[in-house]
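Sharing a chain and its predicted structure for anyone who wants a worked example. Both blocks are below, sequence first, tokens second.
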Amino acid sequence: MSSPQYKLSSSYLTGQFLLAMPSMADPRFERSVIYICTHSPDEAMGLIINKQVDDLCFIDILEQLGIQPKSPTCSEIYVHRGGPVGSRRGFVLHSTDYHQDDGTMKVSNDIALSATTEILRAIAEGNGPDNYFMALGYAGWGAGQLDEEIKNNAWLNVPADAEILFSQDCSNKWHLALAKLGISEHMLSGQAGHA
């Protein structure tokens, strides 16, 4: 079975998941689930949500920034590889119960994106958003690049799910997001389908 065909619409893919097809040739994106933060005719940007950084934790980042962790949950916060671009730049996807006038972009009714030390400080103090996901780096595409990759059967898109997004278990996110389409891995074909 070939993948469902992507149709470009005026809403594009902002606020959706992209799932790497099993045939994904780039090992950086193998079995990736990407939350798309912005998608326009000129560019697209998203964060990989299922690739955890093994040798770095939130406490390490706080230490580098000179922020004192006050919340006991700081030691339980994972950092993820958001993508290959700007790998030293941090991003936090979070619930919209937290907002800064400068530095927070609302992605959907439920999800926002912040890239400031203020949100890290708020989380460290226990005053941050109820739900959050922390990443270093991002996935980025130039004008028309993502659309072309989807047409070439590199990605599937599926409506985002906050439960999958904010889950600490990275190992199942790709399969859970794929299941939202009502299909399993063995049903996917690496061949692009054209009518």
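Comments welcome. Residues 58-65 form the longest helix (8 residues).
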